[in-house]
Amino acid sequence: MISFVILTLLMSFVSSSVVQFEQHFSRELPNGGKHWALIVAGSNGWYNYRHQADVCHAYHILRKHGIPSERIITMMYDDIANNTQNPTPGIIINHPNGKDVYHGVTIDYRQKDVTPENFLAVLSGDEEAMRGKGSGRVIKSGPNDHVFVNFADHGAPGLIAFPYDELHARDLIETINKMYRNKKYQQLVLYIEACESGSMFEGLLSKNISAWATTAANSNESSYACYYDNLRRTYLGDVYSVNWMEDSDKENLNVETLQKQYLIVKNETNTSHVMEYGDLVISHDPVSDFQGGQNAEPVVLPEVPFDAVPSELVVLSVLHRRLIAAQSSDEQKLIRDEMLQLLQLNQRVDDVMKSIVDHVSHDGRQASRLLTVPMYRLTAFDCYEPAVELFDERCFDISQNDHARKQLHTLVNMCEEQIPTEFILEAIAKSCPLHN
Question: Do 106 and 202 lie in a common domain?
Answer without folding.
Answer: yes
